[in-house]
Amino acid sequence: MIDPMTARIERSGPVAPRSALAKLAAALLIAVPLVLTIDVVSASVALLLEIPLLLLAGLRAREFWVRTAVLWVAAPLSAVTIALYGATSGTVHFEWLVMRVSDGSLALAAATAVRVLAIGLPAVVLFVTVDPTDLADDLAQRAKLPARFVVGALAGMRMLGLLVDDWRALALARRARGVADEGRVRRAFGMAFALFVLAIRRGSSLATAMEARGFGGPTPRSWARESRWDRRDTLLVLLAAVIPAVAIVAAVATGAWNFILGPTA
Question: Are 179 and 77 contained in the same domain?
Answer without folding.
Answer: no
